[in-house]
Amino acid sequence: MRIENQKKIGSVITLLFYLLYFYIFANEDSISENLKSRIMSITKKSNQINRRSFLKRLGAGTALTLTGCAVSKSDKESDGEEFVSNGKLTYRINPKTGDRVSLLGFGCTRFPTVDDPELEETGNNIDQEGVNRLIDAALEAGVNYFDTAPSYCRGFSERALGEALSRHPRDKYFIATKLSNFAQSTWPREQSLEMYKNSFKELKTDYIDYMLLHNIGYGGFDQFEKRFIKNGMIDFLADEREAGRIRNYGFSYHGDIRAFEYLLEMHDKYKWDFAQIQLNYVDWKHAKEVNSINTNAEYLYNELEKRKIPVVIMEPLLGGRLANVNNQVASLMKQKRPEDSIASWAIRYAGSPEGVLSVLSGMVYIEHLRDNIKTYSPLVPVSESDMEFLEDVAQIMLSYPTVPCNDCKYCMPCPYGLDIPGILSHYNKCVNEGSAPSSSRYPEYEKARKKFLVSYDRAIPKRRQAEHCIACEECVIHCPQNIDIPAELARIDRYIEDLKQNTLS
Question: Which of 9, 251, 351, 478 could form a disulfide with 410 if both were Cys (CB 3.0 to 4.6 A apart)?
Answer without folding.
Answer: 478
